[in-house]
């Protein structure tokens, strides 16, 4: 069978001029089933054009679209112990790390950079969900702490884009210790008088929600993002009741006062720029007006 697959089939394909079609050439919308050409999806910031469904966005692509002209300085990934507990489930933890690094071309789940958004310098931190579900481990915790320290040193705001399944089980209590460490880092930034804004993306769950993801001065959420500590099914099985429709979505949390606004991905950068210029008292020609429904609009005001 290997001889047919590895030799005969490629020979026939080359003779007929056939080419292998990439598996991800077309992307299916989870809501409507619409098939979207992956290049079109990428150009539209991974938002399905017709339904407006926000797909998961690669961390590096998010930084590139956030900063002016896509230019920023990457923060180095701190060196930490790789497998302190020698953990193994169905496969070794070291093997899982190796596979995720090959898949994402990243050292771990956190990607951070320093750049400008509409001329305002800031530090941005992004979770890469494709790296072990964006889980929070020692490396991620250390990278987040270092990003906060860089923001304090640069005396600029910090914006974080969490997308995570929570703490990384393969690191046990060492992973859970990143919750208080990152919380202390948030407090350090606030004591320095610098703004901290959280942009909640799909999904933001578990220990990440229980720490730095819900400690921002302002909380923005992308449409339809799932934001919670425990999942809906776990809660329903525990309390033995049916939860409301749309429970734990960005829109539900906005309605119940848990987030400040829901902003479409294309509007994230200008929204952040306006908010941070207000918080840092930077001169600006526009002010942000937010309605009771959380919809953001602009009002022209004299520059300070």
Short description:
The chain is an alpha/beta fold and 304 residues long. 35% of the residues lie in helices and 16% in strands. It folds into two domains: 1-54, no CATH class; 56-254, 2-enoyl-CoA Hydratase, Chain A, domain 1, CATH 3.90.226.10.
CATH homology superfamily name of the largest domain: 2-enoyl-CoA Hydratase, Chain A, domain 1
Radius of gyration, taken over Cα atoms and rounded to an integer in Å: 21 Å
Inertia-based shape = globular
| Strand portion | 15-25%
Level of helix content?
Answer: 25-40%
CATH architectural group of the largest domain: Alpha-Beta Complex
Q: Can you give the mean pLDDT?
A: 89
Structural class per helix/strand content?
A: alpha/beta
The description of the largest β-sheet is: 7 strands, mixed
| Terminal CA distance | 74 Å
CATH-assigned fold name of the largest domain? 2-enoyl-CoA Hydratase, Chain A, domain 1
Describe it.
The structure is a single chain. Strand 7 (196-200), helix 8 (206-209) and strand 8 (218-221) form a beta-alpha-beta unit. This protein has helices at 2-16, 38-43, 59-66, 93-104, 138-154, 172-176, 178-191, 206-209, 232-239, 250-255, 268-279; strands at 26-28, 35-37, 72-74, 110-117, 120-127, 158-161, 196-200, 218-221, 261-262, 286-290, 296-300. It is globular. The strands form three sheets. It has a seven-stranded mixed β-sheet, with helices on both faces. A two-stranded antiparallel ribbon has the order 1-2. The protein is 35% helix and 16% strand. The model is unreliable at 298-304 (pLDDT under 50). It is built from eleven helices and eleven strands. It has two domains: 1-54, no CATH class; 56-254, 2-enoyl-CoA Hydratase, Chain A, domain 1, CATH 3.90.226.10. The protein is α/β, with parallel strands linked by helices.
